[in-house]
Amino acid sequence: MTTEKQPIQHKDGDYEIDTLTNRRLLKDHEYDGIQELDNDLPSWWKWLFIVTIVFSIIYVVRLWVFHSDDLVQKKEFDKEMVDAKANPAATAKTEAFEIKLLTDDAAMASGKETWSKICSVCHLADGGGLVGPNMTDKYWIHGNKIENLFAVIENGVIEKGMISYKDQLTPKQRLEVASYVLVKINGTTPANPKAPQGDLYE
Amino acid sequence: MELQKFTYDNKLSRMFLYATVLWGFVGMLVGLIIATELIFPHLSGGISWLSFGRLRPLHTNAVIFAFVGNGMFTGIYYSTPRLLKTLMFSELLGKIHFWGWQLIIVSAALTLPLGITVGKEYAELEWPIDIAIALVWVVFGLNLIMTMVKRRVQHIYVAIWFYIATFVTVAVLHIVNSISIPVSLLKSYPVYAGIQDALVQWWYGHNAVAFFLTTPYLGLMYYFIPKAANRPVYSYKLSIIHFWALIFLYIWAGPHHLLYSSLPDWAQALGVVFSVMLIAPSWGGMINGLLTLRGAWDKVRVDPVLKMFVVGVTAYGMSTFEGPMLSLKSVNALSHFTDWTIAHVHIGALGWNGMITFGMIYWLVPRLFNTKLKSVKMANAHFWLATTGMLFFAVPLYFAGFTQSLMWKEFTADGYLKYPNFIETVVQILPMYYLRVVGGTLYLTGVVLLVVNVINTVKAGKFVETEEDSAPALHPHGVDKGHRLIEGKPVLFTILALVAILIGGIVEFVPMFMVKNNVPTIASVQPYTPLELEGRDIYVREGCYVCHSQMVRPFRSEVERYGDYTKAGETVYDHPFQFGSKRTGPDLAREGVKTGKIYKPDSWHYNHFENPQKMVAQSIMPPYPSLLSNTLNTGSTAKKIRVMQTLGVPYPEGYSDKAVEDLKKQAHGIAQGLRDGGIDVTDDKEVIALIAYIQRLGTDIHKNQ
């Protein structure tokens, strides 16, 4: 055996040695002045390749043969949904809840946040209405009581294009924003009020 | 042995080099414009051909096919004759290739802003241009193969292997993915639909990255790095292994673009594992590039050419490690549809393709013009501008992608989405979009320096039209064994490469198209009405898919936000599919579901198209006033229905005759509803069709409820 620093007798003849790195140059490998070294594959590279191949085999066997729960998309999704339902906090959605008009500052602040994030998209920021009705005037399509507004937010008015917000807003948030509409929006003067819709409530 | 004299012709390299610089500048400038549009949505002034949705495909096509395309041809036409010790086979074919390719680019630059598009990412060009691409590509391939046939060097060098793989694979990808049936000269529908179309498209899309942006540039790397460093290639053995592993494995990896979609699990799994197995073959290229510089690192410190090559190859290593990571389902659950992807591809485009191209140009121009580079200082400045520009571009977008995705997925303790309104997540990452513009500006400034430097160098030197060389005639000697054998038989090599790249596609496509339960049918899913079909064509024309996905993924956070996750059977009449790949705006797959989570009435959409900020003050969507004023063209509606029938969409026989009548009826209903709400609109406007389409989205499976 010889070390690679010495000239080596090879069956195809002598190797040339690259003087800068002391590595063997391949004979007859010369292309427009470019030569090639006879270096072996780095062993970490070989191992990297082998590890990824083993990973891949295990992966497909787990999916195709054992249908592992974490690899089958449908199972993974079902589990996520079941886990979410099991979360005790999530039951807040269905808990009984007293519906009464709020006026405190905290409720108004929270109501305002919901209003500008969600409601203003159709009723405009100042409540003058555009796609949705004007919330500033005395005309109401579904009534002007806090229960009426709460119900509209909870169930939506699908035929008119308003969706239900019970999956997006907690009951508390719904109550706060409904209160906010009655306390802070209604009775103001918007920039471009939409024509009245519904019945007059004095 | 008697030496034969011959000359190299530098004219084609020079032409392609100029084209590379020109289109590189244009493509990146368009990128900068659209990045700015995302911050100032009214920048387009409501002019349809300046809107993000139309210019983004122009940007991607210009950078990929014009900048990188011309870049690879520059290097191929320069290196191939020298590596094979012969002239290119045909100067005429070379010229046809050059002018044909530029003509294709110009026609892309004209048609894409006009909204003439197939609507499949990176394959947007309409069928006449697709045919031109195929023809020009064959001209290129023929020239390449015939040059190998008349070579004077017995064995073909690794750079040429990569050129061969590029030629055969791009031909296969382009032809298979582009098959469509024309409605008119400028409109066609792809033959594939929905999830099957998506599989074909991402097989194409991913391998466009592999065989248009990677393999030809590895070829260039194998020529220009050893030349510029004057060092031997690190390992011939590694060249062999990583070449064959790379081209064989790459072709399978396309489904990783469809993880957590309605693609069947088995196909997704192939996308995952073949991506993971690509790390080593990709890094084989990086190692062979970087270790070739062993013994030349002192030169790297001073030579801008080598510096650019080092950063380029390093960027290649980074993005080919990141790619497989993004293909792991757990990472992809976070990264997909976010700016993370945009950051990832720009490490590839700005780092790998950009830097290798610039380095090659700085090396080549002095040699083509027999002079020194006019300003090494300027080239060094370009290097730093490009490197910092890339980082300023990518790092903010990684942060943006991560942040937005976490916001999309966050629930409150009560079990509600923390950020139910999509716009909140957009506002959060907007500062990162500013930084991206800064990064892009730095990078483009570097390109301006390149342009100036190239012009000055060209002026200072004299073009070397031809170069003399000599070599003995080819006569095979010695007995080849192993890989050396096929290196001596380039046509056989080409065939073997073709076989290697066909396998993955065939194994994935055949079951997807032949086995019925891969796309379970849903009885309530019906074809689009003529009005919806026209609306869908407007959706495609305006490039809505560039910012809006139509694929609700099976996650609680998405089902809570958008509604039921998308089923394969819902997409069967979608020629082309419109899943999208990025959510700059919200997903629209369930937009029309009245009992759903995101439904908006017709009048909302009308107002929103007119001026999105009127409805969502902080929206970054551009206005579309032309949709409100344009009259819907129903001239080809009947023909469109007939083409759809040819594609297997079950409209009743003879339906095309009454399609326009039905269209008008439906349009009248929608327009009347808008008029009742006080909106001044006639039945025949384009916006009516688009609203009809959007309100249809995702509704079919809810019909029975």
Characterization of the model:
- The complex is a heterodimer of chains A (202) and B (705).
- Chain A has five helices and seven strands, in the order E-E-E-E-E-H-H-H-E-H-H-E.
- The termini of chain A are far apart.
- The radius of gyration of chain A is 36 Å and the shape is elongated.
- In chain A, the strands form three sheets. Chain A has a three-stranded antiparallel sheet with strand order 3-4-5, with no helix packed on it. A two-stranded antiparallel sheet of chain A has the order 1-2.
- Chain A has helices at residues 43-64, 73-86, 105-123, 146-155, 171-185, and strands at 9-10, 13-14, 16-18, 23-31, 34-37, 139-140, 199-200.
- With 202 residues, chain A is α+β, with helices and mostly antiparallel strands.
- Chain A has a domain at 105-200: Cytochrome Bc1 Complex, Chain D, domain 2.
- Helix content of chain A is 40%, strand content 12%.
- Chain B is mainly α.
- Chain B folds into two domains: 9-463 and 481-509, Cytochrome C Oxidase, Chain A; 530-702, Orthogonal Bundle (Cytochrome Bc1 Complex, Chain D, domain 2), CATH 1.10.760.10.
- Chain B contains 25 helices and four strands.
- Chain B has helices at residues 11-37, 52-84, 91-111, 127-149, 158-178, 194-229, 236-250, 265-276, 279-291, 297-302, 304-326, 329-335, 339-368, 376-409, 422-460, 483-487, 490-514, 530-541, 556-562, 602-610, 612-615, 625-629, 637-646, 655-676, 686-696; strands at residues 3-9, 180-184, 187-190, 466-472.
- In chain B, strands 1-4 form a two-stranded antiparallel ribbon. A two-stranded antiparallel ribbon of chain B has the order 2-3.
- In chain B, strand 2 and strand 3 (187-190) form a beta hairpin.
- In chain B, helix 11 runs antiparallel to helix 13.
- The longest helix of chain B has 39 residues, at 422-460.
- In chain B, 58% of the residues are buried.
